[in-house]
Amino acid sequence: MIGLNFYPQSPRYIEPKVARQIVEGLPRSVRAVGVFVDTTNDDIRNTASAAGVRCVQLHGDFSLEACCELAREFRVIRAFCTDERFQPEHASLFPEGDVLVDAHHPNLRGGTGLTCDWSAAQATLPFTRFLILSGGLNAQNVRRAIATVAPHAVDVCSGVESAPGVKDHRALENFISAVRMADSSVEVSPA
Fold it and tell me: Per-residue pLDDT tens for 65-74?
């Protein structure tokens, strides 16, 4: 998977028409994911259509009804942050979608470099059909994260950047190598 960030306040924001060019150039085996924060379902539909994405990742305050509605049209990844209100069983309320567990930051939505609570992520696993671990992952800690949590996939953002929004190809290669070297008894793919 490759994430395309449609949150205008993010340093990783991408225009939908530029995203479409990327999507059209991807191999068929790579799925493009539109990343959205606190927006409406109509905005998500319009942006996803313009960009050509069929999978959406939702951060922020999305109701269960909004997520279920979108799940009729898209593969939905619902992001949860491991703050003091987080309860692993909340993931079971959305059986039609996948779950991403991320770190909590009081002001930012994702890409903060903060490590999420791995024990909370691991406790979420029984309540999901597909768990993506996110939050502060990099080439140095991803093997340990996979061994601890046993997620279905991992998500990386700031852990492979030289500056916010600037991907470092060497760091990305190192991250993918570390994921591939993770315990072979744990099935995981980089998301």
Answer: 999 999 999 9
